[in-house]
Design a protein that fits this description.
The protein is an alpha/beta fold. It folds into two domains: 151 residues, Aspartate/ornithine carbamoyltransferase (Rossmann fold, 3-Layer(aba) Sandwich); 169 residues, Aspartate/ornithine carbamoyltransferase (Rossmann fold, 3-Layer(aba) Sandwich). Helices cover 41% and strands 14% of the residues. It has a five-stranded parallel β-sheet with strand order 7-6-5-8-9. It has a four-stranded parallel β-sheet with strand order 2-1-3-4, sandwiched between helices. Strand 3, helix 4 and strand 4 form a beta-alpha-beta unit. It starts with 17 loop residues before the first helix and ends with a helix. The structure holds phosphoric acid mono(formamide)ester. Phosphoric acid mono(formamide)ester binds next to helix 2. Phosphoric acid mono(formamide)ester (CP) binds next to helix 2.
Length: 329
């Protein structure tokens, strides 16, 4: 049960109950529908400020939060370590104590290194909600938008739905584990049968796998790991396929990129791969996608692809999160 969301942090969806996540998605759906009907919501966060602290670049996350707070009547401050005293070593405690005096909420993206512990250090001293805009371990706002998208496509009853999260070949750079982590954690809690597929060097963190197994057990669903994309996608309802780095295997970037290069075959999503899934299956990717490397344009631009719906739902989920945690609605 939930009583109030005011000032509630979101570092991982594991910190929120199923009921709280339901409320968040229902609020997002309502904001989305009402905006489509021409109903404005600029009273909800009128004259309120949301800080956005980015240690790395972003297209979707930044713009969905910035547009979202504007639509709710508030204002966003775009911050980077260099634009603040963080680069000179100002502590998380001093940073957040000061920002808490100026505004009502903050989102933080710190995808590499100590992202999670930095956010937890902020949360310890914060008087305002900390929303994780992606760290080294979690990307909760993307996973929530993905769950909202799945609900739009398949309805509320996820029982018997096969959700596949598969690694893809992605040679350009080492991507974090935050997306596969967040997906196995969230989809197992919502009654889907989850299959994780990756070559052996691309395992996820053991503690996250343990949590996902516990979630699946509690929900009475399956959580399976396989080492073949082809096997994984068989009869899938949802094919979510993207690249991540062999981070649990090596922290050496050069070695990591060489390992990725071993797997161009059998780890790219094309039309023949999607044909193994159900006829009504959807293809998902959080974006940015490496077109014609991870996944063919034929699949990305096909009617089965819901990538732009996912990206749009980032806006509605972020609005719901800010509305719930920064006001008394
Ligand atoms: N999916 C996602 O987080 O996109 P950005 O990196 O562009 O924010």
């Amino acid at each position: 049960m939930y009583s109030s969301f005011r000032n509630k942090h979101l570092i991982t969806t594991q910190d929120w109950s199923v009921e709280e996540i339901d409320k968040c998605i229902n609020t997002a759906a309502r904001l989305k529908e009402e905006r489509q009907l021409g109903i404005y919501h600029d009273h909800i966060l009128r004259a309120k400020t949301f800080f956005m602290l980015f240690f790395e670049e972003s297209t979707r996350t930044r713009n969905a939060f910035e547009a979202g707070v504007h639509q709710l009547g508030g204002h966003a401050h775009f911050l980077t370590p260099k634009a603040t005293q963080i680069d000179h070593g100002e502590t998380p405690k001093d940073t957040i104590k000061v920002l808490s005096r100026y505004g009502e909420g903050i989102g933080v993206r710190k995808t590499y290194g100590d992202g999670t512990s930095y956010m937890r250090a902020l949360a310890e001293y914060s008087d305002i909600p900390i929303l994780n805009m992606q760290c080294d371990v979690y990307h909760p706002t993307q996973a929530l938008a993905d769950l909202m998208t799945i609900r739009e496509k398949f309805g509320n009853d996820f029982r018997g739905k096969k959700f596949v999260i598969s690694w893809t070949y992605g040679p350009n750079y080492i991507r974090p584990l935050s997306m596969p982590h967040s997906l196995v954690l969230l989809m197992t809690r919502f009654g889907m049968d989850v299959t994780l597929a990756h070559p052996k060097e691309f395992s996820l963190q053991p503690d996250i796998l343990d949590q996902a197994r516990a979630n699946a057990k509690a929900a009475g669903v399956s959580f399976t790991t396989v080492h073949s994309m082809k096997d994984a996608v068989e009869d899938a309802h949802i094919v979510y396929a993207k690249s991540w780095g062999p981070i649990m295997h090596t922290t050496d970037e050069k070695e990591g990129l060489a390992i990725i290069d071993n797997y161009p075959k059998g780890w790219v999503v094309d039309a023949s791969m999607m044909a193994r899934a159900r006829e009504d299956a959807v293809y998902m990717h959080c974006m940015p996608a490496d077109r014609d490397i991870e996944v063919t344009s034929e699949v990305l631009d096909s009617p089965q692809s819901v990538i732009y719906d996912e990206a749009e739902n980032r806006l509605h989920i972020n609005k719901a999160l800010m509305a719930l945690t920064m006001s008394n609605i």
